[in-house]
Specification:
By secondary structure, the protein is of the alpha+beta class. It is 38% helix and 29% strand.
Amino acid sequence: MQKFFSNKKLIALMIALLVSLGLIAGSMYASNNRNTPPFIQRIANDVVGIGGRLVAIPGDFARNGLDDINNLLDTFQENQRLKSQLDNLAQTKVQVQTLKRENKQLKTQLKLNGTLTDYSQISAAVILRTPSDWRNMVVINQGSAAGVKKGMPVMAGSGLIGRVVEVNRTNAKVEMLSTANKSSDRIAAAVETKGDKEVNGIITGYDEKSGDLILGELNTDTDIKKGDDVVTSGLGGMTPKGLLIGKVASVKKDDYGLANSVYLTPAASLNDVTVVTVISRTIAGD
């Protein structure tokens, strides 16, 4: 208690407040008393007005402060709501883009299936593709129960992407054309030249930098040009003849002018595969 009253500034403030209240009270009494001279009443009214404003200042300040706090809280809540809406919008946009891409791939696959009426077809979806084995293998959701057999070719988009190498009852592994496995059973292919000649070879590799497949094991003086179609030759295995693999991008010749390797652009995207069609060599209806 002694420390409290030892503060001179606080004591002065309390005295000033008491005096102000006393003046206001006295002024109100004087202004309401009819016997008070008019001059004194005017002074009393002025004092009451000034005192009322002085007393109202803290209340107005507190009220305005509360209004500002409420406005700040409203602004914060509105900001949070807008951020949530933006997050939802971004997620929706991603979902729409994904659905559009999948829809486009499904339409392309349906168009491809419509051109393969001479063969039995098994539609499937890719369920696994690991980053460490990205260029080598994919796993599809159809297996022996759906009629998938080892060695069957697999297409996506508008071209061949690989061949079935392992079959389980409900899924199967597909080895990609871009595989780095040197011991893999390679696809036999043929270049269809503009002169109605076929140049046979084997898909021997994949150029990661250009994304081109390499057709090797051929030595020919036949004029192979950029843009010529490369299709399966149907020689050996369960792969039928005439499935599109890609188009010639460039030709590498040896010192004698003979073509010994052809680089071709794949007809199907080997990096973006979600739906595929497994092809049976058996003619539909047999």
